[in-house]
Specification:
- It is a single chain.
- The chain has 122 residues and is of the alpha+beta class.
- Helices cover 26% and strands 48% of the residues.
- The protein is built from 3 helices and 6 strands.
- A 6-stranded mixed β-sheet has the order 2-1-6-5-4-3.
- β1 and β2 form a beta hairpin.
- The N and C termini lie far apart (42 Å).
Length: 122
Amino acid sequence: MTRAVVEGYFAAINSDSFADLAEVFADDVEIHTVGAEPVVGRAAALAHFPAVLANYAEHEDRVTRWIETPEAIVTEIDFEGKLADGRPVVFSALDVFDLRAGRIARVTTWYDTRDVRRQVRP
């Protein structure tokens, strides 16, 4: 069950079906991304992802490794995207999902912010 919840998260993100995240997030979900203020609460999290991905014409988070425990899942990610102006963006990331009662209670993401800023800078 726990892996299915995280798979649902990636399916929603990758298909731009952001409303589907409501099914996998706890009411008080926290989104922590290196270099950014935390996003707290389901409504804020549902608004967060469309805003973060708004400048991408294409994007995909491909999980390359799963580490699973009953309370947490760690995923290694290869992100590939294309900005609205056609420029590619490629980077690796690490996501840690804390789970509670069959839902995602916290997502913490680490990646090379300097490299990503360089790629997305106009």
